[in-house]
Amino acid sequence: MEITAQPLFPSLVWTTLFDDRESFNERMLKAARELREKDPVGVSRTNLEGWQSDNILQNLPEFEEMNTRILQACERIAESQNFVQGLNYRHQAWVNISPPGASNQVHFHANCYFSGVYYLSVKAPECGSIFFRDPRVASRMMTYPAEKLTAFTATEIRFPPEAGRLYVFPGWLEHGVDMNRSDEDRIGISFNVVAGA
Ligand SMILES: [Fe+2]
Questions:
Q1: CA of 130 to the centre of ligand 1 (A)
Q2: CB neighbours of 79 closer than 8 A, spacing ≥ 6?
């Protein structure tokens, strides 16, 4: 008997590693640290203990390179999913600086097509992985007694942070970040992307 399986309604997480990450991250880290100096209090959202900037990177010339790459990546992804031509892609982005002990509660990003994170500085893997929670809510009623989890039976899936790596995911996909158990700050840029007329 041959049995085949077909994924229905899969959740996708896209990723890329920037070739020029060393020099690029140096420039972006400088801009991120200067931003914190200007606004040491920051804003409080899903971050526990960390510093988060306001959602303003899209308006700041010192982050122009980052802004361009976020939009390029998301437009490529949208193209791979057959989004209609001629849409205008816009984003909001912010800096997260998470010291040892900081984490991010599980959340999702309403009213955007894509969300993501780019890592500028991490001490992996103990500085805290991003994890995604199974969006098939009804599946939580009865989890599978599997010895080794697969993408189908898992309830949470973790991705280790890596300096120079970009992750993009649908805004509706619930996610959080494990506690930073390293002795260094975890520094990244997060963003939301929409597309419209
Ligand atoms: Fe998030």
A1: 9
A2: none
| Residue 38 placed within a domain | yes
Q: Which of 128, 117, 155 is nearest to 14 (CA)?
A: 117
Q: Which of 41-50, 107-116, 188-197 has the lowest mean pLDDT?
A: 41-50
Q: What is the pTM of this model?
A: 0.95
Calculate how far, in angstroms, residue 103's C-alpha sits from the geometric centre of ligand 1: 11
pLDDT tens for 8-20 read 999 999 999 999 9
| Cα-to-centroid distance, 14 and ligand 1 (Å) | 15
User: How close is the Cα of 116 to the center of ligand 1, in Å?
Assistant: 7
Structural domain contains residue 187 = yes
Domain that holds residue 48: 14-137+147-196
Instruction: Tell me how far the alpha carbon of residue 3 lies from the centroid of ligand 1, in angstroms.
Output: 38
The CATH number covering residue 112 comes to 2.60.120.620
Q: What is the mean pLDDT of the chain?
A: 95
- Residue from 99, 15, 112 nearest 58 by CA: 112
Q: What's the CA-to-centroid distance between 2 and ligand 1, angstroms?
A: 41
Q: Does 6 map to a domain?
A: no
Q: Is residue 131 part of a domain?
A: yes
Q: What is the mean pLDDT of residues 46-74?
A: 94
CA of 13 from ligand 1 middle (Å) equals 13
